[in-house]
Specification:
globular; about 250 residues; about 50% helix; alpha/beta; 9 helices; seven-stranded parallel β-sheet; Rossmann fold
Length: about 250
């Protein structure tokens, strides 16, 4: 069998980077997307990863732009021939209470965190259907399940991912494509650690396990869902939140 190929959006970030490394350790060719980095800085990142033992490929894409996603898919398919595993991980926040939130803050989060799931998946789905194989893994959030003050945009986007996942799982099951969602709680990334200590400690006090998740703990679940022998799991949402929120 030819080597599997995985595309991870937002692959340079804390969770995305952990996912890239975990998939690479499984012998998978990993392609990490980037947007805000320049080509030069992205190539520097790639070179640094090679020095660390990770031979990642990189590709530029604006996940919030449909045409950019289609172009990215053409470049990837031309170079690698296929994408077996898609991890929709890219996302942003623009926190503000609803009455103070601007239309621009609403739109950019919905576009980047929800519309992108459709844009990127749509660009690669026909290839998966033709090969009758695929693993699509969407990274949502605990706040898409329980909501969060100041995050009507983010919570709406992340909740929408659940509906997208279930509907697409139904559409693609006959083509042996699985579609699942992972909903992490608070993860020990630069974004969380940049929150003020008082607020961070308040969040921590609400988590029964008494700590934040590590990025590699999210990555291991991605690897689990991406495995060939887990082809009967589809339309599911796996929560990783240390007991912070239980349905």
């Amino acid at each position: 069998m030819s080597q599997q190929v995985a595309l991870v959006t937002g692959g340079f970030g804390g969770i995305g980077y952990a996912i890239c490394k975990a998939l690479y350790h499984q012998g998978i060719q990993v392609i990490a997307t980037y947007h805000h980095h320049s080509l030069e800085s992205a190539q520097e990142w790639q070179l640094e990863q090679r020095k660390n033992g990770f031979d990642f490929d990189i590709v530029h894409v604006d996940v919030g732009n449909f045409a950019s996603c289609e172009q990215m898919a053409r470049e990837v398919i031309e170079k690698h021939g296929k994408v077996d595993i898609l991890v929709n991980n890219a996302g942003i926040t623009r926190d503000r209470s609803c009455n103070k939130m601007s239309k621009e803050e609403w739109d950019i989060v919905i576009i980047t965190d929800l519309n992108s799931i459709f844009y990127v998946t749509h660009s690669l789905l026909d290839g998966m259907r033709a090969r009758k194989y695929g693993r699509i893994i969407n990274i949502s959030s605990i706040n898409g399940q329980k909501g969060q003050f100041g995050q009507v945009n983010y919570s709406a986007a992340k909740a929408g991912i659940h509906g997208f996942t279930k509907a697409l799982a139904l559409e693609t099951a006959a083509h042996q494509i699985t579609v699942n969602t992972i909903s992490p709680g608070y993860v020990e990334t630069d974004m969380i650690m940049s929150i003020g200590e008082e607020i961070r400690n308040k969040i921590l006090a609400e988590i029964p396990m008494g700590r934040f998740a590590r990025p590699d703990e999210i990555a291991r679940v991605v690897v689990f869902l991406a495995r060939d022998d887990n082809g009967y799991i589809t339309g599911a949402n796996i929560t990783i939140n240390g007991g912070h929120y239980m349905l």
